[in-house]
From TrEMBL:
InterPro entries: Biotinidase/VNN, C-N_Hydrolase, C-N_Hydrolase_sf. Residues 31-182 form the CN hydrolase domain. Coiled coil: none annotated. This is Vanin 3.
Amino acid sequence: MIISYFPKYVAILVLFVLRVGALDTFLASVFEHALILPNRTETPVLKEEALLLMNKNIDVLEKALKLAQGAHIIVTPEDGIYGWVFTRETIYPYLEDIPDPEANWIPCRDPRGEENSIYIVANIGDKNLCNASDPQCPPDGHYQYNTDVVFNSEGRLMAHYHKVRITCALADLDLFLFVISM
């Protein structure tokens, strides 16, 4: 495991240089789309409702994967799965518990990257419990992160990067570590 303070793009580049070093060319696809956003609400929605909305955006991503035939990697938009119209409380149902890349985590049985033989870089929300003795632990007992994840062509989590802790206050933005598992 390599732990670094390098920007995520440097670490991702290193990962893919190692993986595709034998290739003469490397093709990347960058995907942008009109995000399907949830309605603004003052109270959190049910997890099922959050999953329905995220799956709509994932359906759009699946179409992009088919269009990206021949690319080695596709990079999806910032907040491209869940959106950005949230408070700390209302985003919680959209967050996942993303394990360390060493956990050999494959989040779905039918990974779209495998069908298309492509690595996927996506931005999703992560939640982690924190210890009450941690002076920066929020009152609700968990950290929330805006997180970039990298899945290989078999759908396995290869890397994650906690970009910022989601607090909805600019003064509280903290940068975190990028973790790579080879």
